[in-house]
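Hi everyone, sorry if this is the wrong subforum. Our group has a chain we'd like a structural model of before ordering constructs, and none of us has done structure prediction before. Sequence below.
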Amino acid sequence: MQYISTRGTAPTLSFQDVTLAGLANDGGLYVPQAWPTLSREQIADLAGLDYIETCVRICAPFVAGSLNEDEFRALAKEAYGGFAHAAITPLVQLDAQQWLLELFHGPTLAFKDVALQLLGQLFARFLDKSDRHLTIIGATSGDTGSAAIHALAGLDTVDVFMMHPKGRISDVQRRQMTTIVAPNVYNIAIEGSFDDAQAHVKRMFGDPAMNARFDLSAVNSINWARLMAQVVYYFYAAVRLGAPHRKVAFSVPTGNFGDVFAGYVAAQMGLPIERLIVATNVNDILHRALSAGDYSVGDVTATAAPSMDIQVSSNFERLLFDLGGRDGPALARMMTGFETDRRMTIPEDMRIGSSLFTSARIDAEDMSMALRWAREASGQLIDPHTAIGLAAARGSDIAPDVPVVTLATAHPAKFGDAVERAAGERPRLPARLGSLMDREERCTTLPGSYEAIAAFVAEHARARS
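Answer:
Right subforum, don't worry. Here is the predicted structure as tokens:
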């Protein structure tokens, strides 16, 4: 499998090189040259397989040429061996139509673990075969940072610099990053929003001075390997609900568009998905883009679902590339204009091509109502992000014989205050987190300027050998 950039001028790379690179050097994101497909018979054959074997079947075409099936299976077993549920991503039924896909049984209680535990194994494997040392630059709206740090802490071949917006993530999210003591981990709280942090990451990848000194890579969902890992649980869930013999719909709490784009990839591979519901909070740029073609940046509003407090969704570029006929130069012009003007109108023909998607904007009241409904109707405590997805799922017009799966993206205890306000019950942190709230924190606060952040990285990162 070979990979190309959405902007058309970066070199074509193998899976190994794409994993280590993260962002393409022309500013684009890597995607496979063509989507691999599975027949109905191959999808039906997934029935009865455990999560790891499903992962091997789905990922095999993407890693071809870099890893064989036995090598990849060993990495997957190591990645998922520490999850707290034997099914890795179990399904929970709420009523006759509504289901939850619990993605929070990894070490940091968030869906990011499903991808980042595997990405950590891939980094270790690929770097062990070379003399490279990576400088990982990341931005997090809450969960990516802790999952990445947990996966990479102590790894001698990488330094990890993780930025989060100061005061805009939950206490549990912050502490899961800042209480990990490892010589290769640097937590940075910046003044500003997640979008500001994400912009600094992209600027650093395009900075000739930084690239000359450091071998930069990324763990955000701009890294293709992360998205690949997320495709797996769409197949795993859908097959358990009757695919390929019936369609399944998914509702996805969405900020950076990576998780829902993984569903789009599953559909391109042949999974019969009835609908992908893009559920946003009041930071609704994706809802406006998909429903009206208005991809324009507004101010970020802080909410009880901080991982969705995003106005610039990096992975949306991958969808636009596909819907625009994979014309890299044309997309590069669109994205350059967007980066300058902070707005873009999605052409009507591209929106017609995205008929797989619907979207919904869920406000704080609707989120709370969905959270209470889950508690009262089925005894399930869910977190605010999942509640946004559930509100969108219950408000959809999908036929009653089609199962609707809401991706439960985080354990409710990561957002205890918000859950308690809505449901009247405070969720408990799992015992495996131990004394998280009592541990000492290590974090550097920096102004939200690129110069300050680049200087900090330059001071602490190990340069190219």
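For your construct planning: The domain at 91-109+224-423 is CATH 3.40.50.1100 (Rossmann fold). The longest helix spans residues 112-128.
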